[in-house]
Amino acid sequence: MDNEYYCLWQLEDETDSVISAVLGDCQRWITASSGALHVELGMHLHEEQAMNLCSQFYSPATYDGEGTHGSLFTVYPRQDD
Predict the structure, then answer these.
(1) Greater confidence, 43 or 1?
(2) Average pLDDT value for the chain
(3) Do 72 and 64 meet the contact criterion of CB atoms below 8 Å apart?
(4) Which of 44, 78, 42, 47 shows the shortest CA–CA distance to 63?
(5) What is the predicted pLDDT for the residue at 81?
(6) How far apart are CA 28 and CA 50, in angstroms?
(7) Domain locations in the chain?
(8) Cα–Cα distance, 28 to 69 (Å, whole number)
């Protein structure tokens, strides 16, 4: 349990860092569920921008479309973790 918590915490930290580096200071909501992180940005990205952001994450990520506040993503832990 502690290792799973640590892995999700590390994944959240990496995800937050990538979002800051690529998009700058933007609001985001990050929640953990089923061993993955679900991210909603406070801005709507064009599909090309969303795909670019996915390619910048250290872990596998998917663009899940648009939510109420902005673009939605799921970030999965790396298999080597």
Answers:
(1) 43
(2) 91
(3) yes
(4) 47
(5) 47
(6) 14
(7) 2-75
(8) 9
Q: Which residues pair with 61 in a beta bridge?
A: 75
Nearest one of 37, 40, 41 to 23, comparing CA atoms:
41
Pull the structure tokens for residue 3. 């290792």
pLDDT (tens digit per residue) in 17-26 = 999 999 999 9
Do 55 and 70 contact (CB within 8 A), yes or no? no
pLDDT digits (tens, 9 = 90+) for 57-79: 999 999 999 999 999 999 999 87
| 13 contact partners, CB below 8 Å, separation of at least 6 | none
What are residue 72's DSSP bridge partners? Answer: 40, 65
pTM for this one? 0.88
Which tokens sit at 74? 């799921």
DSSP state letters, 46-81:
PHHHHHHHHHHSSS-EEEEEE-SSSEEEEE---TT-
| Residue in the structure block whose two tokens are 């709507």 | 44
